[in-house]
## 1
Amino acid sequence: MKETEEIKQALINFRNERDWEQFHNPKDLALAINVEAGELLELFLWKNPEEANREKVKEELADILAYAFLLADKYGFDIKEIVMDKIRINGEKYPVDKSKGSAKKYNEL
């Protein structure tokens, strides 16, 4: 079993054992990602990046990834495929010769 599928199945099993699928519609999963991303951001608020509590960063990142995996499942997306497609698209938008070392957006290169 692919690692991403193993993770997704573990999340689905955890969710189903608790009868939580009823709450996991695409809208609410997207909202949950946003809420957890806000909690991740809060760990860095008013601090230098190295001052953030690594364990709490790990926990919030895991929450974000978990909801993202469940959202991908709702739409039947293959996680590896959609990430690899996005890397390819970004490679076209940000060619190395124009974007290397630059923080400019693709339409400003």
## 2
Amino acid sequence: MTDFQPLSHVAPIAVEALLDHAFGLDRHQRTAYRVRGSGSAIPALSFAAIDQGALVGTIQCWPIRLATDAGAAVPLVMVGPVAVEPRWQDGGIGRALMTHALEAADAQGLDALMLIGDPEYYGRFFGFTADRTGAWRLPGPVEMRRLLARGAGVPDAAGMLGPA
């Protein structure tokens, strides 16, 4: 049975090893890493999936902001990465981690979440859309259809995403 616990209960080296295994050693070159910068994940929104004492999945959420062209700095939460050990994939662990993190965000009243991901999956199961992200810019390449957000606080404004 999979147990979900705060990511802070897991050794950081184990989390990094899982992320390397799930996404490859070059994962730090991805645009998402540039968006969130060198800050720390939000502890109350970052979780580990543990099965029989083994780390099988993680989700992390990050404080970021949209620096709008009008001069405002709008805080957002970047959801992800969601990582599942390859041999555990397709078992619902990733979806359960997303649900757990989104419920925690909702409980805190956070209503401006974004991620880079598959719109068919994240739209269908979690309500993320690209409806308000079309004028956002990122510090690296991204397929704009994969730049998704959810929540009443998501700005429909032009601007650059970056660390909070």
## 3
Amino acid sequence: MRKVVLATGIGHFVEWFDFGLYGTLAAMIGMQFFHAESQAVALLSSFAVFGAGFIMRPLGGLCFGSRGDRVGRKKVLVTVILLTSGATFVMGLLPTYSQLGVSATVLLVITRLVQGFAAGGESAGATTFLAEYAPSRRRGYFTSWIDNFGFMAFVAGSGLVFLLTAGLGEQAMNAWGWRIPFLLAGPLGLVGLYLRKHLEDTPEFLATVKNGLAEASPVRTAMVHSRGALLFCVGFVVIKAVGHWTLQTFIPNYLTSEMPHSTLDAYAITTIGLFVIAVIVPVMGALSDRVGRKPLMLAGCVGFILFTGPAMMLMARGDMFSAVLAMLILGLCIAAVDGASNAAMAELFPTRIRVGGMAIAYNVTVAVCGGITPWFSAWLMSMTGNPFSPAWVVMGAAFVTFLTVLCARETAGQRLPR
């Protein structure tokens, strides 16, 4: 089980290190690839391309979800890491707008779309892989490591950008230093690929194939016969999508554009906050095995509803301590949701359609709610003139998930549906 967690987790780390870098460097990328009159317009344009990557996630989910249930979870995980690392490496080599004009912007969009397509198979595939290996009474704990590695990837990306900015200076970072994290995707991808290629597929999947129960069209079967499971999965993911990309992408740029924090401080605040979340998630996962999935997810949603507004007001005070405290408050909320929700989603679907069902529900929700969150939050501020208006987005998402969890049945400790 340790080998499975390590190999799956490191691959997941590489995947989200690659995918999340764009969000962390959105402000710098905006000034490099868009001909804009102001930093705000460039940031909006960069967030729009960030969201474009999410448009491709349902298509990736359709392709890789079906493939994962037909030919194996392992093959999907190997393919997606190849695609994502390759696209990210290419992004680090792209000419800028000043060098190639609008063609540079087009190339940036294409690489982002490839990243999004590949990401469509990652979360569902990796979660399913761990869920099917894990013992029933510890499934919450083991599947929560997916989010631990995901957040550690964001920590590594944010921390690397922080160190590069501190070492090179903002001028050099804006000029060429931003390319370095993207170029690291090449060697990191090879490490993740090696580990995933040496894994055996899950016993659950192999038994399904051996018994002749594999579905020819798993996604179609899920949409026809498991609509309730799909809807519950969508509801679980709403706050995950909005919460994750608010903390990882919107907040670092928000701290510099709307709040009185320097670029260096913003990266430090984000890095500390995401690290603490990564540490707490497995604790929450283990707790969900003891007290159930529903109490943890409900507590996280209530926390977002009550404390998102006050947390953003804390950030506005302008000092590091208050901003880090705000990140930790929001981090506890997302950790509670993440610690329970991965197992809860896997427990909704039978083995023969598990990857396909999760991939479609997860990626459609992330595309609609997660990809648009940074852009919509920035747009909402520009329309209302209220720097705290993004809190409404997070609170609304938390309310939707809260209602969904209330209606769901408890699945902790039960065997996976066959």
## 4
Amino acid sequence: MRLPSHKTKIVATIGPASDDSKTLESLIKAGMSVARINFSHGTFEDHRKRIERIRRISKRIGRRVAILGDLPGVKIRVGRILEGKVELHRNQTVTLTVRDVEGMEGLIPVEFKEFSRLVSPGDVIYLSDGFIVLKVVKVEGTDVVCKVVVGGTLYSHKGINIPNARIPLEAVTKRDLEILEFMLENGVDAVGISFVGSAYDVLKVRHFLEKKGVRMFIISKIERPDAIRNFDDILAASDGVMIARGDLGVEMPIEKLPILQKKLIGKAMMAGKPAIVATQMLESMTSEKLPTRAEVTDVANAILDGADAVMLSEETAVGKYPVDAVRMMAKIARATEAYREGFGNVRMLEWKEKIPKRGTIKDAITRSIIEALQVVDAKYILTPTKSGYTARLISRFRPRQWVLAFTGDERVANALMFSYGVYPFVIESHDENGIIQLIKGLGLAKEDDTVLLTKGAPVGKTAGTNTVRIFQIP
């Protein structure tokens, strides 16, 4: 067995351009760690087939892939447009309507019945992640007449943003819970909650899952000003976060986005919770064979900021070159990680100083691991884990070594596919001999290789990981 060439995890959205068996296999081999399914589009039957196909191919080729399901949430969207798209031109007059019509030149349907109540003359409306800008001229009943300020091609079901508008609905809708039920029935590993505003939205999903007696990895999508204000509480309630820059870059001043990205990633790292950076990372590869230099730099900077995962949306869902986009993402990750690992010890020591001096036993263990890695050239960090927590705590310091995690729970293993530099294995026994035999049998390690092993020794009332051992493989 060979581990991936890069430690940064790649999330790829599966859609019409990528859901056939051949393309899915190529995506996995190119470096896809997580397959994202956007439940804003498609039918349950479509999604069921995609999930089955991903699982079947992943098992056949022996590459673990997690599945992330995105809930639609309360997203205001454009309705169906005749022939799938319409061109909007500067200074053109267009009407946004909630009437049941097909979109065409000058008329755009909106899939939100209260839409006209959210806007007033003079308000600015953004379509398609802010690429198209309209200004409200007047409101006539359920119709909103606008002037096009910035034109472009508008596709069916694209998002609509109205900065500062208060949408009178909870982030998690009845429809979201129906979709969540489907996810549970079909073995989806993680759920992405759209338009989270507070920890309450996260806890609503968590309580729903608890009533079903099932745990699912919960990713909160940060895409509204409310989520920024309440970020610490949201992070505490979530298993991970996604910095969804499309809506976030419209809902707040766009020039603040790069620094905000760094701050949010930093907080997630210290909490030991994975952070995904999403939206427009290799956007030009939706139609072009190669990305722009700016896009390549953007992906690299997200990794340098400390992102656990980087995400592809339209690039793989509907783009012309889905496999090339994943390959490019993997190349950027590999080159960026090699640069960062050149400063590895210095960076790790800097991060170590942020760990509380009087923290938990696991805080002490992670401090000890960092100190040990300054002295010993270990090949791997071996981490038996029940919940995945220890592996994530180690991952946050971005060690040069792979963190090989061993768990008896398939769901825990798949959740670890979101964490930087962690490769999980499902194993019946967590004992040291079983782990050593497994990695030797897979060809990952050989006799006399030095490894660092975390373990839980049954001493007193201590529970969980409390010991670090460094040894050469016999």
